[in-house]
Amino acid sequence: MNRREFSQLTIAAAIGHKFLRGAGQSAPPPSSSNSAGIRLSFMLWAIEKQWSFDRCVEIVAEAGYRGIELVGEFYSWSKEDTSRIMARMRSLGMIFDAMSGVKAGFAVPDQSADFATQFAAQVSWAKDLECKKIILLSGKRVDGITAEAQRQTAIDNLKRAADVAAKDDIQIVIEPIDLIENPPIYLSTVTDGFAIVKAAGSPNLKVLYDFYHEQRSYGNLIEKLENNIDLVGLVHIADVPGRHEPGTGEIDYANIYRKLVELKYDKFMAMEYYPTTDPVESLKAARLGVQQSTADKASSQ
């Protein structure tokens, strides 16, 4: 599939999405959305089994967070749902900072057409939800083709997707998933993610550095962060083992937070963990841990 064919598919999908849902209302994001320094977000799926979507949003807001990340919840929303939810987000001074939901893998040759169509729908939703970052997954390793051919599929599909996203000032981040959680996944380490992003050469294409996933299979978290900070578009936080609060496991998050400040990381930091205590208190404690560590580092510079 060439770039022209990809663009034709994405345009058609976007038109179909708008036809089915109607044009979403838009409004400028809250004025603090461009504030300097690390901003905190929470990946909502980690608490959605216990509470309704609306209550989950309130929990994150009560804990003092700025952003919320989604994994496709919006696919079931009507136009009215979207308008109501966006109004609530604005009233809380919050934004959707990142979203996922594209099922087709960008590294799977037979899924390239589906990837183009689904990605176009995702861009349309991102515009409706005033979200400027889309998270993409690679899909599985494919038997019967060479590693080089699958890598080139990933690069080509991501280049085309980045071209489409750039028209609406949207950034793409690709997320490696550890092999313990997903043994057949193609992209399992940030090392390969950084190499693919470099090869694609699109300025709005970066890597999601999930410290939980990277620690489980590979470790050496800070050195890889230092060497590739310019390619990091988002970070995710949870401790190992168990995917619980930072500080409950083996990762020294205080050092990671300080390193992020030292490297002048100024994007969202998203907590993606299962709270072991009251969720509001748990998220508050995680926020205070970040603030304390980064304040200590900033004062020492």
Secondary-structure blueprint of this entry?
Layout: H1 3-21, E1 39-43, H2 53-62, E2 67-70, H3 79-91, E3 95-99, H4 112-128, E4 133-136, H5 147-166, E5 171-174, H6 190-200, E6 205-210, H7 211-217, H8 221-228, E7 232-237, H9 253-262, E8 268-271, H10 279-300
Parallel strand pairs: 1-2, 1-8, 2-3, 4-5, 5-6, 6-7, 7-8
The helix content, as a percent range, equals 40-55%
CATH architecture: Alpha-Beta Barrel
Percentage of residues in DSSP E strands: 5-15%
Indicate the overall shape: globular
**Which structural class fits the helix and strand makeup?**
alpha/beta
What is the typical, i.e. mean, pLDDT? Answer: 90
Salient structural properties:
single chain, 301 residues, alpha/beta, TIM Barrel, 8-stranded parallel sheet, globular
Structural features, described:
This protein has 301 residues and is α/β, with parallel strands linked by helices. It has a single domain, classed as Divalent-metal-dependent TIM barrel enzymes (TIM Barrel, Alpha-Beta Barrel). The chain has ten helices and eight strands. It has helices spanning 3-21, 53-62, 79-91, 112-128, 147-166, 190-200, 211-217, 221-228, 253-262, 279-300, and strands at 39-43, 67-70, 95-99, 133-136, 171-174, 205-210, 232-237, 268-271. The protein has an eight-stranded parallel sheet with strand order 3-2-1-8-7-6-5-4. Helix 2 (53-62) links the parallel strand 1 (39-43) and strand 2.
